[in-house]
Fold these 4 entries.
Entry 1:
Amino acid sequence: MNEDDGRKEKGADNQREAIPGVRSLHSPRAPRVSLPVEISEASLLTLLDVSPDALVMVDQAGRIELANSQVEALFGYPRSELAGKQLEVLMPERFHTAHVFHRERYAASPRTRPMGAGLELYGRHKDGTEVPVDISLSPLTLGGALHVLGAIRDITELRRLQERERAAREAAEARLALLQLILDELPASVYIVQGEEARLVLANRAAAAVWGATWDIGQPMLDFLATHHIRLFGTDGQPLPPAAFATFRAVHRGETVRHHQETIRRADGTTLPVLVNAVALGRRLLAGIPAEVGSQSSDPAEPVALVVHQDATALKEAERLKDEFIGIAAHELRTPLAVLKGFAQTLIVQSARGKGPELVEWQMEALQSIDQATTRLVELIEDLLDVTRLQAGRLALHLEPTDLVALVRRVVTRLQMTTELHTLSIFTPVEHLVAPVDPRRMEQVLSNLIGNAIKYSPEGGSVNVTIHEDEQAHEALLSVRDHGIGIPAQQHLLIFGRFARTDNARAYGIGGTGLGLYLCRELVERHGGRIWFESTEGQGSTFFVALPLVSYPDL
Ligand code: ADP
């Protein structure tokens, strides 16, 4: 047992590593204990035996005078064997020389203090094994002579726990370093935020490039944006309110946000279109991150979100070029198609009127096929033009009070004429239901939905259209139900996207562009309505549309 040297004596208590949960045996303020000389050795031993620690009393020369029963248990010597032995017998040999030196210094300046502050101390068992120990020393004056009382505690278990804690901490730090390394190599910006204010937990290198500034760990998002004069805009070019930021939607409402389009405007005025994905994480996932990195607050109830920003500049440019091309091609196709359609119809009408030579049956059929095919082509081109109009924000609605029941009847009658395999029926408790809609656009929506119901029921069957008023919500509710091929569950999220088609539609060889439902959703939402569906693959689908019966304020 080597005691601390003279240089360390001052404030030795402070230098010593605090060990949680261990009662301090040594207070620097503890008075030097002076016992009446007449106290017997036996009663002193009884006193020492009460202590849970091993206690030894040595004289100024370092000889053991007394040892309690815990010493016997800890070191394996009977007390009788220890009496009169040098204290060194209880310590590994490598400490002997230093101990003798420190004992002499201690005798010159005795006070209550820990032994070997800052060092790992070991005791030596009779059988030669070493035991990690914690020792504190107290001077004790007995009959005018100085003695030293040493309290020795076996800290094997404590060391094991400390070692385990250190290993766990190192493993967590290594995991975090690896995570940071991986994140830093990613081209997309990735960050994790915590709490209602979205305080930064960690961010990768690309995050600084996306923001054009470094977001400090622990800094709330709005504070960071304000400090660096960064603003966020939506697809309509308007500043986004914080509640609409993908990050806040994830931390405040636990939403999973996918492909949210935002534009970042940095302090230098440059802008960056980004696609943002944000997902709320369980607080548990941050458990491996050391607290000082994680946050100042370790409130386990705090929400946590992972946010990924993808630079969408190239994507946007590609989309713009694609839309531009689609727009030009569709425009150029429009005129020759109009000519084709016009002449096909003239031929049909004039022949029916008996003008010119009479057409035989196959000639008439060929003309009608040309007419139908051009009609389909015109529709397709109109769809393409609508997509480019929507993308450019140039699709205007002309709202007027429209009887939806009459509109539904018209579309159903027209489409019933295109099929003999299907039976189209309308179910409605009302004769009329008037809503402020663009009739041409609403007819387009209904034609698409009912047309799809027919197209995706290749075996035929019933197609039921319902329409009624939801008085409470002030909405018209329409539904179109078929018993066709249905939509595979894993593709439910996709089908309102541009050019989205399901695998089973392709497998059945049913043609289409994947634009119809995209246009339906855009048109319905621009009317302030909603569109959704329920579908089971192989059993059929039902599409629902809800439209406000009162004018939508933003239109
Ligand atoms: P398309 O021109 O391909 O019909 P839509 O946008 O109208 O384009 O529909 C997108 C995809 O959704 C279709 O390709 C089809 O896979 C699926 N779909 C739409 N309506 C139905 C339906 N009633 N039943 C089954 N699948 C459907």
Entry 2:
Amino acid sequence: MSTKTRIPIHVKVSTQSILHKVDFNNLPFGKHHTDHILVCEYKDGQWQDVHIKPYQDITLDPAAKIFHYGQSVFEGMKAYKDKKGDIWLFRPFENQKRLNISAERLAMPALPQAYFMDGLCELLKLEKDWIPQTDGSSLYVRPFMFASGAGFHASPADKYLFVIACSPSGPYFSGKIKVLIEEKYARAANGGVGFAKAGGNYAAQFFPTHLAKERGYEQVIWTDDNTHQYIEEAGAMNIFVRINDTLITSPTSDRILDGVTRKSIIDLAKYKGIHTEVRRFTIDELIKASANGSLKEIFGAGTAAVISPISGFGYKGKDYALPELENSYADRFKKMITDIQYNRTEDKFGWRYKVTE
Ligand code: COI
């Protein structure tokens, strides 16, 4: 048991590391797993001790409610290693808070902050050799919680598992992406779970994204479920557009995820004096701006992809290309954010969190 933490953490170290099997010069996103996972069970109305143990399968009752009613929420985070070998997280308390916001919406128990933070830091210290040091690579961290309690009654489970698994990862996308503006399907609706990081929100994207891919697009731009006129998100990311020099992003709502990268970009833009508008915007506005040349950029923002520039979009059978820009906002924000994340620059906002002593 660790002596430094405030909660009981039991650590069983793997005797068979698979670290040597991974090519760190050629890291796909999210494919490899590290040697250990963290598991904590909720039962009898409380969270039990935290266990860090060798990476292994999780055995569940076939009636576990995750399988039937989809009670499952997750977070996406990254751990970075700087030149000196110190380990950093980026705004981890935002993820910890959001996990509980998501959990509440799905009638799941809140996880106390110490279980999340102390458990995560202990796991990262154990997995420190798994954190890539090359630019563009990091240790993707996936905390998740799901209903392990069993029963076919459609009601919340009485048992849950909180798990953290990690994956040494390279970039999520290899280059610019071409997107299709969705006219029929929606990822979220008012009063629904769109703002939560619920597994089902992502499952609901797979079929429309598959249809878009068949038509030669890589991702779907989500529009509002009511009119399909307002632009809301880009694939599994928040969306930003630049019209002339104004940066625009949709406001968070029942339907839009309160992304950590999204809010960091808004703060950085304000700090840099970039005129920023957090407001609803329509497809019409984009098409008019594209026609008169004022539409300069569209990019997605999220933890996994950081910032993903969009090369063009399709709508109602027509393609609209975006210009190639020098010194784009996408490149500038990506540099500003990753410089903070990898401890390459001063952190004026206090976003960096040191894991190692
Ligand atoms: C992330 O950006 O970390 C996410 O959670 C999106 C995921 C679908 C890769």
Entry 3:
Amino acid sequence: MIKTLEWTASGIRFIDQTKLPTEEAYVTCSTYEEVADAIRTMVVRGAPAIGVAAAMGIALGVRDAEGDHVAELRREFEQICETIAETRPTAVNLFWAIGRMKDRFEQVSEMPVPQIKQALITEAQRMYLEDIAANEALGRNGAVLLPTTGGVLTHCNAGALATCGYGTALGVIRAAVESGKKLQVYADETRPFLQGSRLTAWELMKDNIPTTLISDNMAGAMMRQGKIAAVVLGADRIAANGDVANKIGTYTVAVLAHEHGIPFYVAAPWSTVDLDTPDGSKIPIEQRSAREVTHIAGKQIAPEGVRVENPAFDITPNKYITAIITERGVVKPPYAESLKQLAHAEAAASA
Ligand code: MRU
């Protein structure tokens, strides 16, 4: 399995996603500031991977903190959490992970400092394993929804590279293929950062899953020609009413799928569900550098000084979403009720 990120004695080791697919290079971040930078610059990206990278970054910062007393350690811990929180605004997994590390800190704050440090390292490692298990479970839950044969379109990269392993949308595809389904994946290239062509195509080819790369503006034509039987993609945040923030271009794919009567599935772990955000209009959308649009692989492709917009994500209204696939189960509209029910069912089961 691709090791997207890994806790090691010398720091957090990441596969450098800015170098793929031409170079399989790894970087080790030995301070929490370096981890924050790796998230900001998209060495590591994808909502679940960002969340666990954040938790590991916090654990690393706490491990190396100088404070000998809990009060000092708490001050440093809060500073570390603040730095990590400022990296990327849209994926709620980042804030979910920080919240979970804060809860853990409170639970163990009566203990001696070395034990607090160890508890936070253990918590981050637990989150890593939980993420892989969640992806495998949601993969199984979603696999049954895909056709036995045919084309499945995906957008961006919601694969092993966007998670701690196996992937969300690509986890569903992997599980379907493992169960014997004969799928042909259509991967949108996903301008401007090209996660589809650079990352999705790379990781699916590594697994020998039949993959066809298309540029984003080809999706409608492929649907019209009957080549796409289903769409499955990931999410950066799912609001309480089922509106979904995901990579820019997702909304376009959703409207196209609706027009062609093609099922549109969103696959995400429960850590991506944000019941505190009522609807998509309240989700902060990250704006990224104009250079991602004006340049490709360092080469300028637009006139100097042209005005650019570069929102990294868009909102897909819940009415376009056929089902949301999670490790807890598959939910269907109306999402305001079905998501709440799933939250309560799980809370009751773990009580
Ligand atoms: O900007 P990125 O590459 O972090 O955006 C990633 C996406 O939009 C993914 O589709 C999403 O995080 C789901 S990943 C399992």
Entry 4:
Amino acid sequence: MMTKIKGKRMLIGGRWIEKEETINVYDPQDNTIFSTVPKATKEDMLHAIEAAEEGAKIAAQMPVHERLSILNKAADYVLEHSELYAETIASEGSKTITEARAEVSRCVDTLRISAEEARRINGETIPFDQMPGHENRVGYYYKFPIGIIAAITPFNDPLNLVAHKIGPAVASGNAIIVKPATLTPISAILLAEAFDAAGLPEKVLSVITGSGSEIGDILISHPSIRMVSFTGGLETGEQIAKKAGLKKLSMELGSNSPVIVLDDANIEDTVSSCVSGAFWAVGQNCLGVQRIFVTESNFDEFVQKFITKTNTYKVGDKKDEATNMGPLISEKEAIRVEEWVNEALDEGATLLTGGKRDGAFYSPTVLTNVSTDAKIAKEEIFGPVVLLFQVKDLDEAIEKANDVNYGLQAGIFTKDIKLAFEAIKRLEVGGLMINDSSDYRIDGMPFGGVKGSGLGREGVKYTIQEMTEPKVIQFKL
Ligand code: NAD
């Protein structure tokens, strides 16, 4: 049975642990305490690693049919309690209840896709006779689990991004230790409950709560950990990469995604898709539309329609189904966003709408006349702010879109297939959406970035590739 206690305990190697020392989990909307979680110590982390050393052996022995049965049962469990999961996301995080429900549904899918992919962890035969003198040899490779995975996750999709690591880890027969975001740990704990209820053997999974900088180092640097799967900001990712040592790294980092709108774009569709892509989850979205490059002939119409659509957004109570946008994850973050916008305005940018803060709430904001060298154009804003740039043509748009240290996803709106292919060839990103905004993802596609946006790919099938290692078998006949 699902606990009515939201949080208060963590899962270490199959045992639910409470601690006297706790961390408060706040609802950012009104700063009330939503729940608490145990503050894990370094010793707790060492226990989790010790348990995982055994857990990795247990997981690797688990037949595929058991793995997929557990994954499907965990998905059933999340589905059965979906409203509690959605309420939790919408309480500890920034998302509205509508956005939270969509995330729960994605999580169920992620677990089901993981179950399906468990059937397809295949190797392939190798033509050894390609080398003269090797004609009497045959062989192939298997894919084996890598061992213990350390997963560190961010606050903005507190359930599905955790499912993106646990699902493939279980599917591929690994043990996994999750350190969820300190601000939003309860969704991850509820996901651990789903796996506990589904019968995942003890020691295969730990979800350990505490400060990333305090307990994270032990996890990242421990020699028993074979892979660090991190989703979060570039700065944290770089720190982790330095400390990890000889381990496989998967780095899903941030971006300031560009969208290009050409002369022949359907403006209604484009505006609708870009506004939604810019303000989903208060713009706290690694794929969020941040920079839009519009060619001259469309610019004025695009700007007018963009402002009109943005102004229909209702900002307010996350639990109200009529609300389009809730608060940022904290007042501190809202103040940071406000400062970045004010800095751009001081440097000559024009505020087209928004720019107002009330506690953790920040209104959907549209700027133009921003220098492409401004901080707000170069860095990841991670808030509800979008920058509109007028450009001459595709060449200028591509050049400006690429002139940052990020490259996760981009969008281009055009009916001209030749220009679309030009963009495919030249945009420095991990994914390009034609006639859609950068904010498009399904959980079965390879997802990840180039440059400062990361290393490796997620998306269940691709995560499994990262979480397994080939072992070559060769027969001399
Ligand atoms: P963050 O980098 O501040 O924190 C991410 C995680 O790292 C948290 O669990 C945190 O506790 C932990 N952490 C912090 N310092 C640590 C340390 N020294 N050692 C170990 N762990 C540490 O990121 P955030 O603010 O939670 O999330 C926002 C960022 O995540 C944005 O940059 C966003 O673009 C990115 N993100 C990327 C993707 C993707 O798939 N590419 C998806 C979602 C979010």
